[in-house]
Specification:
CATH topology of the largest domain: Aspartate Aminotransferase, domain 2
Structural class: alpha/beta
CATH superfamily of the largest domain: Type I PLP-dependent aspartate aminotransferase-like (Major domain)
Shape: globular
Number of domains: 2
Largest sheet: 8 strands, mixed
CATH class of the largest domain: Alpha Beta
Number of strands: 16
Helix content: 40-55%
Length: 415
């Protein structure tokens, strides 16, 4: 079998491929694992009941049911849904948008493939790049470009907090945009660290992007206003110059693969054109299932009163189990978990790499994600890459309680 260069890249042993392969095997029961890896959202009973109610409502409305399953939508996605979302965000948060500012994609991963390859890569003899102003960043970005050498990441400034916590900040003192940058990208909350860029940091990045006439992409998969997995105060906003990416996945609907892009109409037009080539039409079912929740604003109430407190409680329990298993036994630090589903844990005295630690833990039935996969886009060594792991607490307290002592035992062996 002869593959193209990009075919070889797509089928190489990437971090996201290994993560999803191990995750799939564990979730299917092929291998018994304590799941501290992966980013699958928790199954929240109250949200499940909501989706069941909405599914029943959809089934009883024959025209909506048929439209959801039997017809192609436009490449931009459901007009009714886009109108409803624009009205909600305009009225609640004064975002200056209407339906022309929104496109639905087949998941956020699909959206970022489109965005990265629209704004970076070869333009004649020049190669435009994507700048990540704070690393570590999301593992799923790393293999999204058609061209090699497109991603550039910048190390953070580290603030030491009350032990064992620390926090990453954008290091604006040393962050300088070169003329070949075509896009700036951040996630908020950040996957893997749970870091939340402050409103001030985000506005500084937007100012920088405008000065260089490039878009600022904000990946809001876990953020405000929904799904709202945030444990610190932020202001939801969109302004010209930004591309805001959202998703239905972390509401509890990852299987519906529904991404949302909010941007200026000219950007929406080119994203829609690319989406038509890649996917033919917009997704229907995610929009149909959430239509009444968007229209009524109930989606915001669910985010604030159901999803946020559920994860806040899980996070606190996970930290308690970690401290109980680690304290007095191994040296560790953890990034202040301000949002998302993760604990980003650093073992400063670890004598092996995070990938090697991953393999040892996997043999013991604990699945984590090695830190090394999150530091793409830089040739400069970063010590955090080799001594950090990402843990998820979304699979419940029982899983975390069983896994933490095993993690401590294995780490202790290699410190």
């Amino acid at each position: 079998m002869i593959l193209s260069d990009y075919g070889k890249k797509l089928t190489s042993k990437s971090g996201i491929l290994q993560l999803m392969d191990d995750l799939g095997k564990a979730m299917s029961g092929q291998t018994k694992m304590l799941m501290l890896g992966g980013g699958n959202p928790a199954v929240i009973e109250e949200m499940q009941q909501t989706w069941l109610q909405e599914w029943e409502r959809l089934q009883h409305d024959l025209s909506d049911f048929t439209a959801s399953l039997a017809f192609y939508d436009t490449p931009q996605g459901s007009l009714k849904w886009r109108v409803a979302l624009a009205e909600l965000l305009r009225h609640r948060y004064a975002m200056p948008i209407d339906e022309r500012n929104i496109v639905l994609t087949n998941g956020s991963q699909n959206a970022f493939f489109i965005l990265f390859n629209l704004f970076s890569g070869r333009i004649g003899t020049q190669k435009r790049k994507v700048l990540f102003p704070l690393a570590p960043e999301y593992i799923g970005y790393a293999d999204q470009s058609l061209d090699e050498g497109v991603f550039v990441s910048h190390p953070p400034k580290i603030e030491l907090l009350e032990s064992p916590f620390f926090k990453y900040h954008v290091d604006f003192d040393s962050l300088h945009l070169t003329d070949d940058v075509g896009l700036i990208c951040v996630s908020r909350p950040t996957n893997p660290s749970g870091n939340v860029l402050t409103d001030s940091e985000l506005r500084q990045l937007l100012t920088l992007a405008r000065q260089h006439e490039v878009p600022l992409v904000v990946d809001n998969a876990y953020g405000a206003p929904f799904p709202g997995i945030l444990f610190t105060e932020v202001t939801p906003f969109w302004e010209p110059g930004m591309i805001l990416s959202m998703s239905l996945s972390k509401l509890g609907l990852p299987g519906l693969r529904t991404g949302i892009i909010i941007a200026e109409p000219e950007i929406i037009d080119v994203v829609s054109s690319a989406h038509a080539v890649m996917n033919l039409a917009g997704v229907n079912l995610g929009a149909s299932l959430t239509m009444s929740l968007i229209k009524s604003g109930q989606i915001l109430d669910l985010a604030q009163n159901v999803i946020k407190p559920y994860y806040f409680n899980l996070r606190n329990k996970a930290l308690a189990h970690m401290h109980e298993a680690f304290a007095g036994r191994i040296s560790y630090q953890v990034h202040l978990p301000e949002g998302a589903l993760f604990l980003w844990v650093k073992f400063p005295e670890l004598r092996i790499t995070s990938r090697e630690l991953y393999q040892h833990l996997k043999e013991r039935g604990v699945l984590v994600v090695p830190g090394e996969y999150f530091f793409f886009g830089s040739d400069a060594p970063n010590p955090d890459a080799h001594c950090c792991v990402r843990l998820t607490y979304s699979q419940g307290e029982e899983v975390v309680a069983q896994a933490m002592p095993i993690l401590a035992e294995v780490v202790e062996k290699y410190c």
